[in-house]
Amino acid sequence: MTIPVLKRGVYIAGTWRASSTGETFGLVDPATEQPFGEAAAASADDVSAAVEAARAAFEDGPWPQTSITDRAAVLRRFADELEADVEPLAELVMRETGLPRPDSIGGTKAMLAVLRYYADLADEIELTERRVGRTGVTALIEKQPVGVVAQIVPWNSPIVMAAFNLPTALLAGCTVVLKPSELSPLSAGYLADAAERAGLPPGVLNIVTGRPEASEALVRDPRVDKIAFTGSTATGRVIAAAAAPTLKHVSLELGGKAAALVLDDAPLDRLVRTMVPAIMFNNGQMCLQPSRLVVPVPRHDEIVEALAEAFAKIIVGPPSNPDTQVGPLISRAQHEHVLGLLRSAVDDGGRFAVGGGMPEGLGTGFYVEPTIITGVTPDSRVATEEIFAPVLVVLPYEDEEEALKIVNDTEFGLNDAVYSADPERALALARRMQSGSVNINNGQYLDVAIPFGGVKQSGYGRELGPEGLDAYFQTRVIYLDAEPFHGLG
Ligand code: NAD
């Protein structure tokens, strides 16, 4: 297999180069705790040059003027080129993030699916509508690309996170400065390589790697028209504020603390079959993860026992091991944070039905046991804070109104779930859940054609589906030979 690229610079106007200061930062493999590569630490000058390249490609380059059908053809070739790199890219994602090999491969495949979906959707998009108004005036209603997009992504599945905005921005005719997480900066390089081979003009996609300071400069830059941010709610707040002085368009995909509400008639086998993968997916580091299980008191012990038995069978280990289902957490800092949260559960009177610490026999690597916490209250730290690990908190309820209150009593609103044998009852409760998506009899789900996004402090804006593409257009109206204005209709 080809050895993945373990050193990269910044990618600006179609050229890879070192950061202007020559500064780099090292990367640590979360499974071995060993250094494995380095990335350029972009300076403010590099960020400025990347924005300049994107601005020039938007103002004077061919991309925004290219027909949407031709842009779709480039997206298709982009997918084909990237497909050739699935193996080395997955190998790199595994080292950057500790995601097991199938999840790492799945990340690249998600990008292919999104590129191809939007390329197909282009055939259905009318960029110009000729409309006759109520006064008899004729106007052209046109979809225009928003402009220069700063796309800032997190480390948990870096290629998937890029997929949620990059194909839509490109198809709409925007130009992009992509800022990957400092914990997974190298994998995005494969996107630039594949896009270049596919014929994307220079400057349309630029990549700056670096610490948060690099993206702070990007967010403040007045030549950026839109920020597509995926990351924590805390950073989302900072970004929304930094975007305000120049009134940039902002979309925020932020944290979550999803709940799965189990009704008294919910089939246990389906609950176990769907909840276990929903918790373990992406090493438990998924914004959609239903990390709170809200259960009726009479069924508490039965449910905890069944899930604990299933959690105990999960194979935790190195991501390259073909049997591994859950790899390490992303970093030492996150590992210490999660272990601290588990200790707080004990301080809050909680118990571990399974797990609760580091797995035996894995002395190296940022591993955490699949864990179920019981005996804590809905206002405890583990029940309110995003944990981002293979950890489930079980919260009992007496009646459905109390259950709904527990589900909705959170600052987040990304995803929830409801389990019941009665579809009508489940749907009625789903409609009362304050979140961007609700799953009936499943823990979490995504589909490229279905919009995704949060409410409350999980953010705003929608990705995927036609709605995701709409976010990269703005409307321009051209009136044709209107008479002097004499009223709206
Ligand atoms: P993070 O907020 O720490 O960082 C995300 C990105 O923002 C990184 O690229 C980082 O360099 C950059 N950044 C950090 N501080 C910045 C600042 N002040 N200005 C501009 N950019 C800044 O998040 P993370 O730890 O990388 O990712 C985990 C979080 O992401 C979790 O909260 C998770 O729920 C969330 N997430 C949300 C979604 C979603 O779609 N809603 C998807 C995945 C992850």
TrEMBL record:
<feature type="active site">
    <location>
        <position position="253"/>
    </location>
</feature>
<dbReference type="InterPro" id="IPR016162">
    <property type="entry name" value="Ald_DH_N"/>
</dbReference>
<dbReference type="InterPro" id="IPR029510">
    <property type="entry name" value="Ald_DH_CS_GLU"/>
</dbReference>
<dbReference type="InterPro" id="IPR016161">
    <property type="entry name" value="Ald_DH/histidinol_DH"/>
</dbReference>
<dbReference type="InterPro" id="IPR015590">
    <property type="entry name" value="Aldehyde_DH_dom"/>
</dbReference>
<dbReference type="Pfam" id="PF00171">
    <property type="entry name" value="Aldedh"/>
</dbReference>
<comment type="similarity">
    <text>Belongs to the aldehyde dehydrogenase family.</text>
</comment>
<protein>
    <submittedName>
        <fullName>Aldehyde dehydrogenase family protein</fullName>
    </submittedName>
</protein>
<dbReference type="InterPro" id="IPR016163">
    <property type="entry name" value="Ald_DH_C"/>
</dbReference>
<feature type="domain" description="Aldehyde dehydrogenase">
    <location>
        <begin position="16"/>
        <end position="477"/>
    </location>
</feature>
<keyword id="KW-0560">Oxidoreductase</keyword>
